[in-house]
Amino acid sequence: GLSQYSSDPRTEWDLSAYSTRDQVLEAMRNLRYKGGNTFTGLALTHVLEQNLKPDAGARLEAEKLVILLTDGKSQDDANLAAQTLKNLGIEIFAIGVKNADEAELKQVASEPLELTVYNVLDFPLLSSLVGKLTRVLCTRIKEKRHKESADIPVNTGPQLSPTDLKISAVTSKSMHLTWSPPLRPPKKYRIVYYPSKGGIPKEVILDGAVSSLRLSNLTSHTEYLVSVFPIYDTVVGDGLRGVTSTLPLSSPRSLRVSELSHNSIRLSWKAAQGATQYLVLCSAAPDGAED
């Protein structure tokens, strides 16, 4: 499977798209480069939520490997997103080209770094990595499969997926989430939320025994997308998604003018709930308007 990214990740093809080596190579030859920014954290989150799902061809019994190829320093928090993948047993290999930040590559990659971090000065030099990287990947898969003895279920569905997401108690700065847990309790939940019109995703990790959460410190009068993912030892179940808008901030009411003099007036109003300060603007009426 392959995804390209800049400020917005884009899936080029899923794990289930092609079944032969020649088909993958042909797809690669037809690939068009996507220029733009370097939001690596958002890209890794996209891979987890979109590309490593059963309906995208990810088999639950298969080892999960992500190879990150980047030529620049991330403009968002790549380390946080990478840590989420690694906590789920997904192994990350980081390959830098040209202006990649080697310290960031080492943060993102899985241990041992001598096998998972690579850096070259220009794109043609990537060909020198192919042989070694292929051997390392195959060896790592064999090692992990040998160690793996857990009995992993064959499909997701209601056994691994929460249901019935409800969003309530919405204010200008907060909202409350509840959901029904899956038949098989997860180890943890991962809740991702962000403004629908653009914004850096934030996430909360909860214990699998909990099935509710209050989101706070939100922006008022903003539509938010919310996702709830159940996390098991070796797989992420299907997520729940919801959308809702926070309330606008309350306004002061009943503005009154009193105690007029030749150079002063007194204003009074009913307080706005939650306001800590007020900004009062005053200007002379234009010529011809009521004073």
Automatic annotation (TrEMBL):
InterPro entries: ECM_Assembly_Org, FN3_dom, FN3_sf, Ig-like_fold, VWF_A, vWFA_dom_sf. It is found in: Secreted, Extracellular space, Extracellular matrix. GO terms for cellular component: collagen trimer. Residues 161-250 form the Fibronectin type-III domain. The keyword Cell wall biogenesis/degradation does not apply. Keywords: Collagen, Extracellular matrix, Secreted. It comes from the Eukaryota. Residues 1-133 form the VWFA domain. SUPFAM superfamilies: Fibronectin type III (SSF49265), vWA-like (SSF53300). This is Collagen alpha-1(XX) chain. It comes from Eudyptes filholi (Southern rockhopper penguin). The lineage of its organism: Eukaryota, Metazoa, Chordata, Craniata, Vertebrata.
